[in-house]
Structure to design on (579 residues):
């Protein structure tokens, strides 16, 4: 290892594990400045955590509200110790947060509902955050009411989520400045879709979620109707009518920009 | 890259510019064009498939633009990240910036990223290492790289070269240009207990393509490079000298926290005209900062705050 690599490794370790071997890290630096070696290094150590914690609070505003800032920051401190940032973009910071929370549950073996809610909320908020910057269909045509079913495909800025709590309701309540109570467990299915750089959260029924998941997996409308009807014991003709009714899902979802028209 | 030096000589003098910040997007794109240019943080736009990419394209159509990176990590002992460079090059090809800059620093090692601009041990080994990487980057991007002096709070005990000499040698060896951050000069020198005028005297001003101005926080014992307040008089005074010595290099105001409205930023930027005309800074004593210590090198999350409003509940 070169001297440069050794010095950088020691300094970087001192940022991630500030208490591990302070004397070794401080020995890297001259002591002749106004801050001294320890004081100068402390500026970087402090900045490392505060910068990332601020970004994480922006990625997970509802989770931060739910936990309270102090507890949220404690979780972030443990998270970046275990999962130091890997990519050049700050947008990637929260990618592993929900998985890390699941693997490091504070309730241990005795699972508590509030922990499940926090993990679900983290998954939901990262999905919302990712949707802001995802590849989308802006500047290109969307499907219209005249698009044949066989040509309907989900647009690229579209995501589905399945949760054990009403995370969307909680998230929007926090965004409105409210102080909602932690919700009781209840299944929740949500679509995220972005048009003209506006992301919508769309609550779905379980059957609608299953239908869109089939389409996301590559099936067309007819195949998705057949699969969902079979899985939920629905009459296929009734499902087809429900899809195409004047107030059915088809027109509403086309209006909201769920679909593009596939090339013939 | 043999042509880097020639390309450097052809770069324009852009006058006064502002850092492109999300809180100003609406004003910049909806208002009357201003006599100003913008510097965009590359990482906030280069991987975007959403609104940020649309915004930077629109800004580039209306204003001169440069790209300023915070994650190239030119000094790291890790291999260069060619995925990062490919993304940066795609953005540069799309928005055609006047130039692309980053910092003389490293941001991580062992595949990890600190998201800070960490100082280099200034040694012959580091110089050879960074020079080789600058050549690689310039060859890949097909343009000269412009490198900035970072603010720093420590000096490596193994350092044997002063920062101005290091940057001068790097520029000579690679043909790269330099971004002289005047506030960083002041912050680094104050914290190191050395004279900023001596630093400026030693700096290779003939290689300076661009300058930065920003505010810092005075903690009494030391300074923090916070970019969250007006430029201090001591920095304006240093800028007055640097303006002459660089022959009027393009000058940009950075503001990254507690950001005023667009007119407020423009007003602070226009103060530079007094010092460009040779006026000295007032010797008013500004007190120590109230409140807690700010965060150094704010390389922040610039885009999502503005995007936050773009979310609807279709319930």
């Amino acid at each position: 290892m070169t001297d440069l690599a050794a010095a950088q490794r020691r300094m970087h370790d001192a940022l991630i594990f500030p208490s591990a071997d302070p004397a070794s890290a401080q020995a890297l630096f001259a002591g002749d400045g106004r801050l001294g070696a320890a004081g100068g290094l402390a500026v970087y150590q402090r900045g490392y955590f505060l910068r990332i914690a601020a970004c994480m609070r922006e990625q997970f505003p509802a989770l931060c509200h739910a936990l309270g800032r102090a507890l949220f920051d404690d979780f972030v401190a443990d998270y970046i110790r275990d999962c130091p940032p890997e990519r050049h973009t700050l947008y990637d910071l929260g990618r592993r947060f929900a998985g890390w929370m699941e693997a490091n549950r504070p309730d241990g073996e005795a699972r508590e509902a509030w922990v499940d809610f926090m993990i679900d909320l983290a998954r939901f908020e990262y999905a919302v955050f990712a949707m802001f910057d995802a590849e989308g269909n802006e500047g290109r045509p969307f499907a219209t009411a005249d698009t044949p079913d066989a040509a309907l495909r989900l647009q690229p800025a579209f995501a589905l989520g399945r949760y054990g709590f009403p995370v969307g309701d909680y998230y929007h309540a926090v965004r409105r400045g409210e102080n909602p109570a932690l919700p009781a467990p209840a299944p929740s299915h949500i679509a995220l879709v972005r048009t003209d750089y506006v992301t919508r959260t769309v609550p779905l029924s379980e059957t609608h979620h299953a239908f869109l998941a089939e389409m996301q997996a590559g099936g067309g409308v007819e195949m998705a109707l057949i699969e969902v009807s079979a899985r939920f014991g629905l009459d296929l003709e009734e499902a087809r009518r429900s899809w195409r009714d004047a107030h059915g899902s088809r027109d509403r979802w086309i209006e909201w920009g769920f679909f593009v028209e596939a090339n013939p | 890259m043999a042509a880097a030096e020639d390309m450097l000589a052809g770069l324009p003098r852009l006058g006064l510019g502002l850092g492109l910040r999300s809180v100003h997007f609406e004003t910049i794109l909806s208002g009357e064009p201003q006599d100003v240019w913008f510097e965009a943080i590359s990482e906030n736009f280069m991987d975007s498939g959403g609104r940020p990419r649309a915004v930077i394209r629109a800004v580039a159509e209306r204003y001169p633009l440069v790209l300023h990176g915070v994650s190239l990590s030119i000094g790291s002992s890790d291999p260069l990240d060619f995925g990062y460079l490919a993304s940066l090059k795609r953005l540069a090809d799309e928005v055609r910036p006047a130039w692309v800059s980053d910092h003389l620093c490293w941001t991580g090692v062992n595949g990890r990223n600190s998201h800070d601009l960490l100082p280099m041990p200034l040694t012959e080994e580091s110089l050879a290492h960074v020079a080789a990487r600058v050549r690689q980057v310039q060859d890949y991007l097909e343009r000269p790289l412009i490198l900035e002096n970072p603010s720093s709070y420590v000096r490596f005990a193994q350092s044997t070269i002063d920062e101005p000499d290091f940057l001068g040698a790097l520029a000579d060896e690679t043909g790269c240009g330099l971004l002289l951050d005047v506030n960083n000069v002041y912050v680094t020198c104050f914290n190191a207990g050395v004279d900023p005028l001596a630093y400026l005297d030693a700096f290779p001003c003939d290689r300076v393509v661009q300058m930065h101005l920003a505010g810092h926080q005075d903690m009494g014992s030391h300074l923090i490079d916070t970019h969250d307040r007006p430029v201090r008089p001591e920095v304006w005074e240093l800028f007055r000298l640097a303006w002459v010595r660089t022959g009027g290099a393009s000058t940009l105001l950075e503001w990254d926290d507690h950001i005023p409205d667009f007119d407020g930023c423009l007003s602070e930027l226009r103060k530079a005209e007094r010092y460009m005309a040779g006026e000295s800074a007032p010797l008013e004593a500004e007190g120590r900062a109230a409140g807690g210590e700010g965060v150094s090198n704010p390389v922040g999350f610039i885009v999502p705050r503005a995007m936050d409003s773009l979310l609807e509940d279709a319930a």
